[in-house]
Design a protein that fits this description.
Strand content: 15-25%
Shape: elongated
Number of domains: 2
CATH topology of the largest domain: Alpha/beta knot
Number of strands: 9
Bound molecules: adenine
Radius of gyration: 22 Å
Strand order of the largest sheet: 2-1-6-5-7
Structural class: alpha/beta
Order of helices and strands: EHEEEHEHEHEHEEH
CATH architecture of the largest domain: 3-Layer(aba) Sandwich
Helix content: 25-40%
Distance between the termini: 32 Å
CATH superfamily of the largest domain: SPOUT methyltransferase, trefoil knot domain
């Protein structure tokens, strides 16, 4: 998978790709991330990329020309599955969306700032809009990092234990069961006996029961349909 990220603040985005599973995916050639600094596509010597909104009002709007130049340059080099705009009014990211997006070969992610982008960008270049939740960040960069992490870990071969993405919370509309490791007792706090019993089918049953119980307690909405 190749991800081209268009941003005004590439420095905000580097570290999430420099550690852990995402780094391993990149080092192993399963994912490629390219940053494109929108200011390099500015039309004037002041590196301007935003302007006042027509009709007045507070805040600045990201201009269409630099974005068009950057997206057009990328599209001239390869085909893209989607051009995605990270925005709080997009479809809310969830596990089914992450699963689906993990199958893409090439995507462009546009990170918004200030009041957002000129609507004509959304009308003519953007094919999908994604939000990471009903709250407003100061820009799309952190949202893009979250989105990338959620899809890169799902690329086949990225997670060491192939089954482990499948046992994540939400993959089956259930929260994950509690997990424990050594020591079996710490400050008098013990691990549930069943987990040290060696009875694998009983452990599996316990995990299923716990997953259901936790979901009923903490996220009953997940069980509604
Ligand atoms: N940009 C600002 N807030 C955002 C959000 N919640 N999701 C995606 N992009 C954003």
């Amino acid at each position: 998978m190749r991800i081209d990220i268009i941003t005004l603040f590439p420095e905000l985005l580097r570290s999430p790709f420099e550690a852990s599973i995402v780094k391993r995916a990149i080092d192993g050639g399963k994912a490629e991330i390219h940053f494109h600094d929108l200011r390099e596509f500015s039309l004037n010597k002041y590196k301007q990329v935003d302007d006042y909104p027509y009709g007045g009002g507070a805040g600045m709007v990201m201009m269409i020309e630099p974005i068009d130049k950057c997206i057009s340059k990328l599209k001239a080099q390869r085909e893209y599955d989607e051009v995605i705009y990270m925005t709080p009014d997009g479809e809310t990211l969830n596990q089914p969306i992450a699963n689906q997006c993990s199958l893409y070969e090439n995507i462009i992610l546009l990170c918004g700032h200030y009041k957002g982008v000129d609507q004509r960008v959304r009308d003519h270049f953007i094919t999908r809009e994604i939000s990471i939740g009903d709250f407003v960040l100061s820009g799309g960069e952190l949202a893009a990092a979250v989105f990338c992490d959620s899809i890169i870990r799902l690329i086949p071969g990225v997670l060491g234990d192939e089954s482990s993405a499948l046992s994540d919370s939400f993959q089956d509309q259930l929260l994950a069961p509690p997990i424990y490791t050594r020591p079996a007792e710490y400050k008098g706090w013990t691990v549930p006996e069943i987990l040290t019993s060696g009875n694998t089918p009983a452990v599996e049953q316990w995990r299923e029961d716990q997953a259901l119980e936790r979901t009923q307690l903490l996220r009953p909405d997940l069980l509604e349909d």
